[in-house]
Amino acid sequence: MLRKDFYYDLPKSLIAQHPSRERDMSRLLVLDRKTGKTTHVLFKDIADYLKKGDCLVINNTRVIPARLLGEKESTGGKVEFVLLKKKGEDIWEVILKPGKRAKIGSSFVFGGGILKAEIIDIVEEGNRLVRFFYDGIFEEVLDKVGIIPLPPYITSEIEDYERYQTVYSRLKGSAAAPTAGLHFTKELIDGLKVNGVKFAELTLHVGIGTFRPVKTENIEEHHMHKEYYSIGKEACETINETKSGGGRIIAVGTTSCRVLETVSSDDGFVTPGEGETGIFIYPGYRFKAIDGLITNFHLPESTLLMLVSAFAGRENVLAAYNEAISMKYRFFSFGDAMLII
């Protein structure tokens, strides 16, 4: 299957630069994956499409201020780090710009020196392993000197970075938000629970590789970055009980979907665990765990669009996308949402 099979033409004016005024006032395109039928409502109306006994699986990761602006200690030259993965005690894999001359042993300072870093290795695709030096608690130092990294297609500053966090975010570790969850409010979640909808939490720390374009013409040759995930016993029990009882498992976001499909057996039941997943889902994949998906609108030719196309059918998805474009839906991280059932 070719990369161009997942292309669509999106006017730049439809790339959302700011979140909606209220989280649950985004638009929601409901797609029936069997018939291709679409319905247009607001996200707050999602309860009309969920049933008692359904289970929404949410990703509780929290975006960290992973972008660091500093200087090379020896020359004062400007540098930018983006933290990708924690690899050990005070050791992180980072993207470094400019990075070609950053050799092992090079040192950098951030925030006037309250955080220092030394390159200890060069790894895959030119990324660096760095060891950080600081006084106190790393997360607190990072809060002082770091910046929340926004996707490259968002060129405007946002007033409240909390709008780039889900209301249920808890565990710090992501370089990007699981954006399908940005539409939920605490009130909406409480109302769904009253209606008998269950919730299960898992964690997938989203890496900046989520924005990495597919460069190979044959999509099967694309290499996925691995990301850390964790799913506990309680969540698995809720999911498995739902499945045994005939309820639907609905993943909130492609991140939740990828974890569920990673830990699922062939019969759709899931087991607790943690590790790294590099699962790449594209048309032809047989889904085991999920019955529905809540997701935003994704970039042309992206792995996320390929995943959604695998679940709902490429023709159905591209037709729905073109309909959304004609109706001036807002696209990407701060944009509108889809419910696919």
The helix fraction, in percent, is: 10-25%
Low-confidence stretches: none
CATH superfamily of the largest domain: QueA-like
The rough form would be described as globular
Number of domains as seen in the coordinates: 2
Radius of gyration: 20 Å
CATH architecture of the largest domain: 3-Layer(aba) Sandwich
Describe the protein.
The chain has 341 residues and is α+β, with helices and mostly antiparallel strands. The protein has six helices and 18 strands. It folds into two domains: 3-63 and 159-340, QueA-like (3-Layer(aba) Sandwich); 67-147, QueA-like (Thrombin, subunit H), CATH 2.40.10. A nine-stranded mixed beta sheet has the order 2-1-18-17-15-3-13-14-16. A six-stranded antiparallel β-barrel has the order 5-6-7-10-9-8. It has a two-stranded parallel ribbon with strand order 4-12. Strand 5 and strand 6 (78-88) form a beta hairpin. Helix 5 packs across helix 6. The mean pLDDT is 96.
Defining key terms:
341 residues, alpha+beta, QueA-like, 2 domains, 28% strand
Summarize the model shown.
The chain is an alpha+beta fold. The chain folds into 2 domains: 3-63 and 159-340, QueA-like (3-Layer(aba) Sandwich); 67-147, QueA-like (Thrombin, subunit H, Beta Barrel). The chain contains 6 helices and 18 strands.
Write the layout of secondary structure elements.
Elements: E1 27-31, E2 38-42, E3 55-59, E4 61-63, E5 67-72, E6 78-88, E7 91-97, E8 107-110, E9 115-122, E10 128-134, H1 138-145, E11 146-147, E12 171-174, H2 186-194, E13 198-204, E14 227-231, H3 233-244, E15 249-252, H4 254-263, E16 273-277, E17 292-296, H5 303-312, H6 314-326, E18 337-340
Parallel strand pairs: 1-18, 3-13, 3-15, 4-12, 15-17
Antiparallel strand pairs: 1-2, 5-6, 5-8, 5-11, 6-7, 7-10, 8-9, 9-10, 13-14, 14-16, 17-18
Helix pairs in contact: 5-6
